[in-house]
């Protein structure tokens, strides 16, 4: 289990460092398309790098979706999620330390890639829009993960399919919530950004977890063959 926890922490660090890091350090240069690809490519890298060790969940919602589908024992959920939160927090801290080396960087003004919604945040979408997007996007994401990692699916393609799906989700939703579909990814930046990011965090915990659990139950009931 220690090896699995280490892999989950490292993988979630990779996701936050490359995904949120691209938004904070290179957002103006690469735009939303570039940020979307950074998140997707980070998943591809982590999936092929540590997938054989822990399954490369990198996401509490994915872990709970795997439990709901019967793919993961419930007893492993807590250590997985704890490791993911640690990895995400370290990733956000490293981004903050790097960004702070730029003379005109301000955490309050420039942020840390945190998720949000409403007035002053990207497209200024409503709470209901944020909840719907995060629920639906996480449902789709977890369904793809469960399908791509099934014993009957081509194993060599799983990481690519999952990474491309996450990139596509970002292309649809960055302007809505910044895209979470991952409570750990939201937690890490919010810890340091504070304020509205922490106040909004419940949205990016509740909606992804609900979407993932529904996906896990749906996959188990309708599609599972293993």
Automatic annotation (TrEMBL):
PANTHER family per record: AQUAPORIN TRANSPORTER (PTHR19139), MIP17260P (PTHR19139:SF199)
Membrane topology classification: Multi-pass membrane protein
Full protein name: MIP family channel protein
Database matches in InterPro entries: Aquaporin-like, Aquaporin_transptr, MIP, MIP_CS
Domain of life of the organism encoding this protein: Bacteria
Species name: Roseinatronobacter alkalisoli
Keyword Transcription regulation part of the UniProt annotation: no
Pfam family, one: MIP
Subcellular location: Cell membrane
Family recorded in the similarity comment: Belongs to the MIP/aquaporin (TC 1.A.8) family.
Transmembrane segments: 37-56, 77-99, 125-146, 158-181, 201-222
Keyword annotations of the record: Cell membrane, Membrane, Transmembrane, Transmembrane helix, Transport
Matches recorded under Gene3D superfamilies: Glycerol uptake facilitator protein (1.20.1080.10)
